[in-house]
Amino acid sequence: VELSVVSVEQGSYAEFLTSVSDPTAFYALSITPFAELGALEITPPVAFAMIDRMLGGGGSIVSFNRALTEIEQNVIDSVVKMVLQGLTEVWKPIVDLTFGIRARETRPQMLRVSAPNEVVVMVVFDIKVSEARGTISLCIPSDIVEQVGSQFAHAWKRQRRDLTDQERTWLLAGLGAVPVPVVPLIHTRLSANDVLALEVGDVLSLALPAEHAIDLQVGGIPKLKGH
Known about the structure:
This protein has 227 residues and is an alpha+beta fold.
C-alpha cells in the first residue's frame, strides 16, 4: 500500500459531500470526547481491491459499478478500524482523542453526519493498493480542530524544546558506544589465478601513488582524507 497526502482544505460539509463518490464506502466517525461526528470515505476502486486482497486474491483492479454488499462492508470495516486506530495513536501526543465507527452507508447522502453548512477540515489521501489507485477522504469538524489548537501549540513546544545538559550527556554517551566500520578505500584488481597464488609476504602493486590522498569511509559515508 502506498499512501500520500494530496490536499488539506477547509470548507462546508456540503462541499465535502460533493467531492465523494456515490456509491462508495462511507463512514460516520465518533471522535470521543467530542459530540461532533467526522466522516471517512474510501473510493470503490481501492475498496474492491482491498476486499479482493483480504479474501485471498491479488488485489487486482476491478470496475464494479455497484454498492458494496453487507459481507464486503464487513471486510472493509476491519480496514477502517485499523485506520482509526492509527489516527487515535498519532493524535495522542497532542490530545487524547479516540476515533470510532458510528455508522456506515454506501450512499453518503443517506448518512447524517453534520449540517450542510457546518465548517469542516477535509484531508484527501492518494492511495495505491497493488495496481488499483483511488483516494481516502477524511472529514473532521473545524470546531474540534479549533478547540484542540492551543493544546497542539503546547505539545509542539514540548516536542521542540532544547536538550538539557544531562540529556545531551546521555545522548553523546549512547552514540559514543555505537561501533561503526571505518574503511580506507585502497583497492586494486587481480586475476583469479593471481589471487589463488597469493602467499604470505607477497607485495601487491596498487594503482594509487603513495603521495595521493585516499578516502576514509565511516559507516559507508566518506568522512576523511588520509595518506
